[in-house]
Structure formats: structure tokens, C-alpha cells
Design goal:
Elements lengths: L8 E3 L21 H11 L15 E3 L10 E4 L8 E3 L12 E4 L7 E10 L8 E8 L9 E7 L2 E5 H4 L7 E6 L7 E10 L5 E9 L22 E2 H4 L3 E5 L26 E7 L4 E8 L4 E8 L5 H4 E5 L5 E6 L4 E12 L2 E6 L19
Parallel strand pairs: 13-15
Antiparallel strand pairs: 1-10, 2-12, 3-6, 4-5, 5-12, 6-11, 7-10, 7-12, 8-9, 8-11, 14-21, 15-20, 16-19, 16-21, 17-18, 17-20
């Protein structure tokens, strides 16, 4: 029998979707559920509608009935924005064709709950609650609503505390061992006003080894700065990449203090270039498919991006940066997303070299 003493998180980065942006700032780009699922359908892994193999001792709910399931109870405060089930796209949900979701209301308070009763039998295998969620996190909207899980009315999980990701499907676990021999009410609760979309799928109660979706593929080598792609060795002035393959590892800093003016909670890819003092570097990025709110910045230390950023942009697609190297050395280009993921075209626009030899033979391709 497995013991679970903490809440664990497994991140599935390629299911990132567009974020909620604070109402008082210029990034008011919240999406509806169909847009969220449409993007997952395009860029997510090919999850099928297969039926999971669930033993009698386990509970699994994938919302494939297309409505709040039988045996689940909805507690509704705002009828126009409460928990619902959608099949907006054929493969957009995490598994199967449907997922549960709750939308946001701009002005009317929401306290929306769906719950089910579960008998906990540790020796019989019912000792762990697991579920997949995605929602708003890391922007002003996320402060406007709380997403929690309760057992018999006591909060045992808080989404904002458990994740730093922005609309990325993640799997969470809650230990149920303390309730052995009891029948408890497990509740998924959304509470607030002017928040953002929140989604739920693949709710399971078992011993922690039951049904699961396939794990994400390994991230590319340049997911981290330690494996950053050398732009001079790559010798390309224009190239495409799929940010859905990457994890959310870096951010330019915090809102108002970073070199882009914003944070960035989407996936990011890393590149590097060696510049001599006085050499100039210009690069732009633009999305080539689906919705994605991009960001781009160059730093000298990826571990301290806010303090070492030499240029950054998050003004709107496309984003461009241009700078003159203040010193000879390596500069790391981070192709990032404020939110969402998808295909991106990066264009290096005629860097201007000084007389230093650091560009080597590659200089010729830029002249």
C-alpha cells in the first residue's frame, strides 16, 4: 500500500492554453472554453476516447456523459456561471471527449461546487484522490477567484498554492488515508468574481496506481539554458519552434519590474549567442498558429533573469528586441509565452558585428 504524505504535481506542458489577464491592464484576452479546448485539440497529444480500466475498488469520472454525473451534487450560486460539462471539441478534453469547467462572471459573485460521496477503504485500495486541473495562475485574474478541494467541508487542496502554471493541465494528488473507514464528501469549489475559466478532468479515487493518461514526451535539449541552442552554430536567421514541447522554466521577473513589463507563465525555449562588446543584436518572434501571447528577452544569467536582462518585449505579437552588447560574453535569448503555446517563428534581423572575431565565419550570413 502506498502512502501519500504530500500533494504532488505532474505537469503536462503541451496542453497550455490562453490565460486570463488583469482587467485594468492591456492584456484583456480571456478565452472561453471552446477556444481553450480548440487549442488543446491542435497542439495536445492525441488522447483517445478509450475507456479506462477501473477496478471495483476505484472511482473514475471523466465526465463522458456530457453532464454533471449521476451521484454528483451541484451547489449553484450563479446559475449563468456554474460548473458544467462540455464536449466543445472532439479531443480537446484531457481524456475522452468531455471535461468539467466553470466560467467566470465579470460582476456577479460565484461560489460554485460539485461534489460526490466516497467510502474510503485503504486496504481495499481507495486511499488517494487524483485529478487533472488547469486554470489561471500568476496574473491579477488569479487573485480574483479561488479554486479548492474540500473533504467534508475542510479545504485540503488550493490550486493557487499548488501550481505556478498558467492554463497547463496538471495532475494533483490528495492523501485520503486519514479517512479510512469513513464515507466522505469530496467537493471541487470555485469561489470569486471576475476570475477566469477553470477546468477539471479524470477524477480518480484508488491506491495511486490506477488509470493515467500517457506522460508527456521529454522536453527538447534547449528547454533549459544549460542546453541552450547556439545561434551561431545553428546558422539560421529564420526558424520555427513549437513552444508546446517546452516547460515553463523561466520568467523575466514580476509585473512592473521586469524588462518586458510582465511576468511570463508559459513555456519557454532557450538560445545563446556570443557577442563582443559593441556588437548589436536584433531578433523578433511571431506566432504562426493558434493563440499564444508571446514574450521575448535576453539575459546574461538565466537564474536571475530580472536582474540581468538586457532587453525584453511583451508589447504584442510580434515581439522584438534590439540591444548593443555592453560587454563581451554569452547572451541568452529566451523565447517565452505570457500564456498559451503553439508554433513560433523567430527572425534574427541583420545583427551588426564590430571588428571583433567572435562571429567567426558565421558573420557572412548576416551581411
Amino acid at each position: 500500500m502506498k502512502k501519500w504524505t504530500t500533494i504532488l504535481v505532474i505537469t503536462l506542458t503541451c496542453l497550455a492554453a490562453a490565460t486570463a489577464i488583469a482587467g485594468q491592464d492591456s492584456k484583456d484576452q480571456r478565452l472561453d472554453l471552446k477556444s481553450f479546448l480548440d487549442m488543446n485539440r491542435v497542439h495536445g497529444p492525441a488522447y483517445s476516447g478509450r475507456s479506462p480500466s477501473i477496478t471495483p475498488r476505484s472511482m473514475f469520472e471523466g465526465f463522458e456523459g456530457g453532464a454533471i454525473p449521476a451521484g454528483w451534487v451541484a451547489d449553484v450560486t450563479n446559475p449563468s456561471r456554474t460548473w458544467s460539462v462540455s464536449g466543445a471539441t472532439s479531443t480537446g478534453a484531457l481524456e475522452g471527449d468531455f471535461c468539467a469547467y466553470v466560467g467566470y462572471d465579470l460582476s456577479v459573485f460565484q461560489d460554485e461546487m460539485i461534489s460526490f460521496d466516497q467510502t474510503i477503504d485503504v486496504s481495499g485500495g481507495s486511499s488517494v484522490l487524483s485529478f487533472w486541473m488547469a486554470g489561471s495562475r500568476g496574473d491579477t485574474w488569479s487573485a480574483n477567484a479561488a479554486e479548492t478541494v474540500e473533504i467534508d467541508g475542510v479545504t485540503v487542496f488550493d490550486f493557487d498554492s499548488a501550481t505556478s502554471s498558467q492554463f497547463i493541465w496538471e495532475k494533483f494528488f490528495v492523501d485520503l488515508g486519514a479517512y479510512d473507514g469513513q464515507t466522505v464528501t469530496i467537493t471541487f469549489r470555485y469561489r470569486g468574481v471576475d476570475g477566469d475559466l477553470h477546468v477539471l478532468d479524470a477524477v480518480t479515487v484508488d491506491d495511486g496506481t490506477g488509470y493515467d493518461v500517457p506522460p508527456p514526451p521529454p522536453s527538447p535539449a534547449n528547454d533549459l539554458c544549460a542546453g541552450a541552442t547556439d545561434l551561431q552554430e545553428q546558422s539560421l536567421t529564420v526558424f520555427d519552434l513549437d513552444l508546446c514541447l517546452y516547460a515553463n522554466d523561466y520568467t523575466p521577473g514580476v509585473f512592473g519590474a521586469s524588462c518586458t513589463g510582465w511576468g511570463a507563465n508559459g513555456p519557454d525555449a532557450t538560445y545563446k549567442i556570443h557577442l563582443g562588446q559593441g556588437e548589436s543584436f536584433t531578433v523578433c518572434e511571431a506566432p504562426t498558429s493558434t493563440y499564444i501571447d508571446l514574450a521575448i528577452y535576453a539575459v546574461t544569467d538565466c537564474a536571475d533573469a530580472q536582474a540581468t536582462c538586457v532587453a525584453g518585449d511583451d508589447s504584442g505579437n510580434p515581439e522584438c528586441i534590439s540591444f548593443v552588447a555592453p560587454a563581451t560574453g554569452w547572451y541568452y535569448l529566451i523565447v517565452d509565452a505570457y500564456s498559451g503555446c503553439g508554433m513560433v517563428t523567430v527572425t534574427i534581423d541583420s545583427p551588426v558585428a564590430n571588428e571583433d572575431e567572435s562571429w567567426g565565419a558565421v558573420k557572412a550570413i548576416y551581411r
